[in-house]
TrEMBL record:
Organism name: Agrococcus sediminis
The name this protein goes by in its record: MarR family transcriptional regulator
Residue stretches making up the HTH marR-type domain: 29-162
InterPro entries (alphabetical): HTH_MarR-typ, MarR/SlyA-like, Tscrpt_reg_MarR-type_CS, WH-like_DNA-bd_sf, WH_DNA-bd_sf
Keyword DNA-binding recorded: yes
A GO biological-process term: response to stress
Gene3D superfamilies per UniProt: Winged helix-like DNA-binding domain superfamily/Winged helix DNA-binding domain
Keyword Membrane: no
Top-level taxonomic group: Bacteria
Annotated SMART domains: HTH_MARR
Protein keywords: DNA-binding, Transcription, Transcription regulation
GO MF annotation list: DNA binding; DNA-binding transcription factor activity
């Protein structure tokens, strides 16, 4: 059951308090961080409730979906860690649970004896397809913003991520001869 709306915006009240305490220089950053944190909570709640019946966390779903997107359902663990942009320990812990549940296998890397390859199992592939259908219908199809606002927000966040070093623009291709 949803709780009733608050009579005031708590972030606006926090802004007022920051100003009253003489922290005006930090107000824009505090408001941004607090707003994004609350938005993240609002966006993640339907994802978590949708994945709960599948016994998946979003991290476990992401690993399965990443593997299912590959041509043969396999990827070196290091590549998965880089693409998921999380600490290797987190990926290892997530993969441990997926292996325990029979959704992923660890395999020897064919050319690098130090590396491990992750492989999605048939059960993992079937589960991630069902979970993806549910997420698309119950969490991703309506995030509470119209398409234009969602696209604007994604562009702004992409600029923040790029400045933080998450990615680089692809190099320009030379003109054909």
């Amino acid at each position: 059951m949803a709780r009733p709306a608050m009579p005031i915006d708590p972030i606006a009240e926090a802004r007022r308090q920051w100003l009253a305490h003489g922290w005006a220089d930090a107000v824009p950053g505090m408001v941004l961080v607090t707003s994004v944190n609350r938005a993240q909570q609002l966006l993640v709640a339907p994802v978590e409730s949708t994945l709960r019946p599948f016994a998946l966390s979003f991290a476990r779903f992401e690993v399965l979906r990443l593997l299912a997107f590959t041509r043969d359902g396999r990827m070196p663990m290091g590549s998965a860690t880089a693409r998921l942009q999380v600490h290797p320990t987190s990926v290892t812990s997530t993969v441990d649970r997926l292996v325990r549940d029979g959704l992923v296998r660890r395999e020897k890397h064919p050319t690098d004896g130090r590396a491990t390859v992750l492989a999605i199992t048939d059960a993992g592939r079937e589960l991630v397809e069902r979970a993806t259908e549910a997420l698309n219908a119950q969490a991703f199809a309506d995030v509470g913003l119209d398409e234009a606002d969602a696209a604007d927000l994604v562009r702004i966040i992409a600029r923040l991520r790029k400045r933080a070093g998450d990615f680089e623009d692809p190099p320009e291709l030379p003109e054909p001869l």
